[in-house]
Amino acid sequence: MSLLKQLQTDMITAMKNRDKDTLAVVRMLKASVQNAQIEAGHDLSADEEVAVMSREYKQRKESLEEFKKAGRQDLVDKTNTEMKVVEKYMPKQLSADDVKKIVSETVQQVGAASMKDFGKVMGAVMPKVKGQADGKLVNQTVKETLSNL
Fold first, then answer.
1. What is the widest separation between alpha-carbon atoms in the chain?
2. How far apart are CA 31 and CA 24, in angstroms?
3. Which interval of the chain is the signal sequence (predicted)?
4. Which end of the chain is more exposed for a tag (fewer CB within 10 A), N or C?
């Protein structure tokens, strides 16, 4: 089932259950997918759908940090709820240990010897973890791994 069809089904379910919070988030996600589809001019591939969901999740994660800094607990709670809904449509996220393992393997494959090889390692790691790990986590892990060489 395509992501768009899944969102439509979940939207109907949320309407029937009178779940306004989930309904609002699913509507936003559906609109984002449709907008991306219009921009692309074709049906989205699975990778493109994951990219849209990752972007939506990242936006909420950044907002969450800002709300915490501002002391807005009401918005923190709302954003946490939204993030849980978005997570349902994303691939399973890799743990920090899994990311470390992938980075270590990639460093060996690429033959990286110092921080000068950062771009080369990042370029090789990101396609492997696309949509499954946060870019900040990957960036930090690569820096730690290369600095320990």
1. 57
2. 11
3. none
4. N
* Angle, alpha carbons 59-62-68 (nearest 5°): 135
Whether 107 contacts 144, CB under 8 Å: no
Domains of the chain, first to last: 3-87 (1.10.1510.10), 96-147 (1.10.10.410)
Crossing angle of helices 73-87/20-40, nearest 10°?
60
> Tokens 């990219």 belong to which residue?
51
Amino acid identity at 103:
V
**Residue 32: per-residue pLDDT:** 94
Question: Which DSSP state fits 71?
Answer: T
Reported as type and span, the H/E element at residue 69 is helix 46-70
Distance CA 6, CA 143 (A): 38
Residue 14, number of CB atoms within 10 A of its CB: 19
Q: Which of 131, 130, 109 is nearest to 120 (CA)?
A: 109
